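Input sequence (286 aa), recorded before submission:
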Amino acid sequence: MTTLKDTEDASETDLAKHDDDDYVEIKEQMYQDKLASLKRQLQQLQEGSLQEYQKRMKKLDQQYKERLRNADLFLQLETEQVERNYIKEKKAAVKEFDDKKVELKENLIAELEEKKKMIENEKVTMELTGDSMEMKPNTTRKLRRRPNDPVPIPDKRRKPAPAQLNYLLTDEQIMEDLRMLNKLKSPKRPVSPSSPEHLPTTPVEIPSQRYEARIEEGKLYYDKRWYHKSQAIYLESKDNTKISCVICSVGTNEIWVRKTSDSTKMRIYLGQLQRGAFVIRRRSAA
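Predicted structure, token format:
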């Protein structure tokens, strides 16, 4: 009985040892298979034929091409924007140059016309006062006085020439003022009660109000207010006509305004503003 039991134990020990050997062999085989698979994938990767590598390379190539396309589109948009800005700035510079050129020409023409008008007024003034345009020196011969001749007495009757006056009014304004003075100074003729002249008439309005108007540093000071170029105003005349205008330039002794209705220009002198021939009112630019 003892011999049989020992034999069975030995058999079980041999079987367990045989199973351990098979497990180790299987495990070794799996290791070798995995190692061979990794070596094969590494070889394919080096050759560029690995499927996973090709899949990821395809995705990277798509991202690269998409980024290049976006960069080209951005460059095109930026180039178009720069070209549009260049064209816009160029047009603005050309327009500003043309406007400045026209304004300079108008200002020079206005100054020359004003100087011409002043010279003509000086000529008319000299003709009215009897003065000549040129002052010629008096050439007199001085004779040697004899011992018995009386000492010459200087002529005190000769009066010095009147001082020259420079008028800033036009010929029409001077004539209008003269006619007004003649009407005021003319004596009243006696009229009968039955004559038409005896009927009540409207008294002549004498422009007694004077407005303060002057030009300083390219701006107009009128009636305690300052006015500048491109300012919207109302221009009122003696016949109560109200015109909507814009100041287009300010000269040395006049301003130019442009009517908003037909864009025609008018020149207004300081003398006309001071006498009330024209009245300036502010208005909204809208």
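Checked by second reader. The longest helix spans residues 51-129.
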